[in-house]
């Protein structure tokens, strides 16, 4: 089966349109010149005075120039519109390619993200059931690990469901006063991370905000998971009050995010090339949901680099 390069076809069609357009413009100019020449010849047959003939000739030459300028001017406007239309079409096509690639990655990574916890749970349960000599301590450890994987699976499904509601405009906020200090501490206690990674916290107690609690929990959970996933060794978490705002800052010492990527990382299915190279797993939904939840609450979301750390700042 022959694979067609759609981009090359698009360039070929555009080139063909431009060549045809210029060709017809040249023909139109020539046709007008021929018409004017014939009119000039007819007028010349009626005139015997040389002086009047020169006036008529000058008039027709001026008319020829005017018509040429008019045709070329109008043609140039149309050409600019064609170029602009092609540019927009090309950009839309390139964006569609990127989106399709990101969706393909998502569809390929999602089964892995779901299958991995299921496989671990299955293996742990089989070990408990089939190994008669297993100790109670080992059973407890395997059971806890299975529960952790179930929680991970539940989080993936929950994010997919919320994303579906947001995309369809069916998500209804339930705004209430919530203690974000306690929510953050709870999620930190539940956070799973490798022993070689170090987390430092500065959390001001009893800070209240008005928000939808389940969504804010998801926002915090995704930012914490993101920090753990992409950090090298260190994660700093700060929660404080400043100028009548509650501010959450989650920093990590992973690969610094470039300025041109600081908005892209919140796009649905977006994955940084460096993350692909380092084979860091993910669906590309987590930070997208963070941005959507922030927008729904009119929360300001900032990303910047400070002291070789990536800083995700949430201003409530």
CATH topology of the largest domain: Heat Shock Protein 90
How many helical elements? 7
Reported CATH architecture of the largest domain: 2-Layer Sandwich
Our measurement of the CA-to-CA distance between the termini, rounded to an integer number of angstroms, reads 55 Å
Going by helix content, strand content and strand pairing, the class is alpha+beta
The biggest beta sheet is recorded as: 5 strands, mixed
Mean pLDDT: 80
How would you sum up the global shape?
A: elongated
Number of strands: 7
Spans where pLDDT lies below 50 across 5 or more residues = none
Strand order of the largest sheet: 2-4-5-7-6
The percent range for helix content is 55-70%
CATH top level class name of the largest domain: Alpha Beta
Describe what you observe in this structure.
The strands form two sheets. The protein has a five-stranded mixed beta sheet. Strands 1-3 form a two-stranded antiparallel ribbon. With 316 residues, the chain is α+β, with helices and mostly antiparallel strands. The protein is built from seven helices and seven strands, in the order H-H-H-E-H-E-E-H-E-E-H-H-E-E. The model has no long low-confidence stretch (mean pLDDT 80). It starts with 5 loop residues before the first helix and ends with a strand. The protein folds into three domains: 6-99, no CATH class; 112-167, Helix Hairpins; 176-315, Heat Shock Protein 90. It has helices at residues 6-46, 50-130, 136-167, 180-190, 213-230, 273-277, 286-296; strands at residues 176-179, 198-203, 208-211, 234-242, 245-252, 300-306, 309-315.
